[in-house]
Amino acid sequence: MKIQNQSMISFSIHRYQRNVTSLTKTLDKLSSGLRIYRASDDAAGLSISETLRAQIRGLAQSQRNMQDGLSVLKAAEEGLMNVNNLLQRIRELAVQNANDTLNASDRAASQKELEQLLQAIDDTAEKLEFNTQKILGENRPLRLQVGANPGQTIAVDMVDTSTTSLGLNGATLLTQTDAEQLIAKVDNALKKVTNDLTNVGSDYEAIEHHLNNAMLKEGNLTASESLLRDTNIAREMMNYISENIRQQGDYLLISHVNRNIKDILELFA
C-alpha cells in the first residue's frame, strides 16, 4: 500500500533546505549592509571591490601625508617671517651705525643687540622642528607621497636660514665700515629669505591642488565601491519576504505529509 509520494516530499525537503540557506544569506546581507558578504556571493565583484578599497585607503593616507606637509610649510612660513623681521631690525641697526656720529659706547650697545638678533636667527633655524625633523636648519628636499600608487610623490625644498647660510656669521657694527658692509650682507639675506617665502607659498598651493584631487578621487572611488559592494536594502527585503513565504509553505507541506503518514500508521497499530 503506497502511503506517500516520495519524490514530492524529497523535493519539498530539498527546497526547504535551499530556502533556509538563501534566507540566511539574505539576513547576512541585511544585517551587514553588504551585498558581497562572503567571496561566494560574487568572487569577481569582491576582487574589484578589494582593489578599490586599497586605492581608497591609500588616497586617505596620502591626504594625511599632505596635511602633514602643509603643517610643515605653515611652520616654515612662520619661521621665515620671524627671520625676516629679525633681518629687518639688523638692517635698521646697520643703517644707524653707518652714520659716523655714533661714539664707541653707542656702537657697543648696537653690537650687543646685533649678537642677540643673530642668535635668535640661529635659534629659529636650530629649534624649529616637525616630528623631530629640522624645518629651517638644512637644505634638503622633503618628499611627500601624494597618491595611492608608486611614483606619485612631490618634493618641497627645506632651507637653511642659519646666520652662516645667510652670510651673517661673525657680523659686527663696531666701525662705520663694518656697518656699511653689513647693510649689503643683510640685503642679500633678505632676498634669500623672500625667495624662500615665495617658494613656500608655491609649494603650499601645489600640495593643496594635489590634496583636492585626492579628496575628489577618493569620493568617486568610494561611491563606486559602495555601489558594487553595498546591499540594496529594498531588494533584499523583498527577497527576504519571498524566501520566508516559500520556506513556511514548504514547512507546512512537509508537516502535513508527516502528520498524514502518522495518522495512517496509527491505523495499523
Automatic annotation (TrEMBL):
Family as reported in the entry's similarity comment: Belongs to the bacterial flagellin family.
Q: Where is the Flagellin N-terminal domain?
A: 15-137
Localization per Swiss-Prot or TrEMBL: Secreted; Bacterial flagellum
* Official protein name in the record: Flagellin
Lineage top rank: taxon: Bacteria
UniProt keyword terms in alphabetical order = Bacterial flagellum, Cell projection, Cilium, Coiled coil, Flagellum, Secreted
What role does it play? Flagellin is the subunit protein which polymerizes to form the filaments of bacterial flagella.
Q: Name one Pfam family in it.
A: Flagellin_C
Q: Listed GO cellular component terms?
A: bacterial-type flagellum; extracellular region
Question: Which stretches make up the Flagellin C-terminal domain?
Answer: 183-267
Picking any one GO molecular function of the record gives: structural molecule activity
Give the main localization category. secreted
What does UniProt list as this organism's lineage?
Bacteria, Bacillati, Bacillota, Bacilli, Bacillales
The residue stretches assigned to a coiled coil in this entry are 73-134
